Amino acid sequence: MHDLPGPRPAAATLTPTRWAIVGLCILLNMADGMDVLVLSFTAPLIASQWHLPPDQVGWLFSAGLLGMMAGCLALAPQADRLGRKPVLLASLLLNALGLAGAATAGYIGQLLAARFVTGVGVGGILPAIAAIAMESSGERRRNLNVGLVQAGWPAGALLTGYVASAVIASSGWRVLFGGIAAVAVLMFLLVAAWMPESTELLERRRTAGTRPAGRAVLELLSPEHVAATWRLWVGTFFAFMTLYTLISWVPSFAGSAGLRLEAAIHAGTVLNLGALAGTCAIGVVSRWIGLRRFTLCALLLAIVSMLAFSQGSIGGSFGLPLIFLIGATVQGGFNSYYPIATRVYPPELRASGVGFAMGIGRAGAVLGPLAAGYLLAAGVPMSRLFIGFSVPLLVSAIAAYGIRRESLDR
Q: Which residue from 252, 330, 327, 310 is spatially nearest to 55, judged by alpha carbons?
């Protein structure tokens, strides 16, 4: 199948302005990583203070993920119609409001609502910055730059883990939510003052006009795109299921294994350190073997790592190295779906394509942590959870490898 038609930026060296745009997208994704992972690091303390059973903690995780799904499906198409910048500003405002609401929540219902609002904001940001990074890059650097932007997410989560281990013990979990709300406000001001609109999108809209509301999903399912679209949706659904179970529950897994709170947070930090390494590898390795093969290899290695981990202990000598490897392979394989999706669709459909793939896929992110909470409450051991949640990765690997575009193999 041939590449989709449309203007491509030249393969020349990026200008300082374009480098700065990619850098700002990295910072935005770092802030998103903070928004999402702050609950993973604070959940053990919140559950202890509010006397929450594992199934209710699972609902806290899933509330944010439901919000992300709603944000991807509702806001991402608007980034193609109205522009990337307006959607980024609206999403950042929702982020700040949700995080501030979490910092002041007095009971679980308020915290559930706050996490949902935060999730809506995150869901609007991710497709927009993936499209901006793609459109601000020359052809040879597109995989690398979109991969670097996605690496901002585990970098933000990693930073949150280090800050959480120091702040929570002395100041409590509310201070952490409040601090990250301030970061969201700072990102809002930076985007408002400096982020330009995508010139590639503006050019396409000038020549082709603005797509009517609600038309995006029909075009995603048109004969030209349907084969790639359903594989993207299936692949992200099953990858999300395992990924968000891991990033949501690893600190709690470590705590239930007898580790102190600081050590349990450290386990989550190691997972995100691996995720950072794996995501940074996307742009480098995919230039040699292509995005499809990279995703396939990463997810197959993730399955092997999770099966190996299921046979040991999180506190054993190989526990943390395996957590690092799981983070690198699961997150590296999953995050390659972003550059895949940006290459599959043309500029006027790009944010919608990424948004719908990530929005529908997040149904798996909702189900995974929720199912894990109920299984833990029922007494299922952690080792069996790791075995069970390795299966969705195989389905995801097969789906990704089945997406046929020439640009994914170079």
A: 252
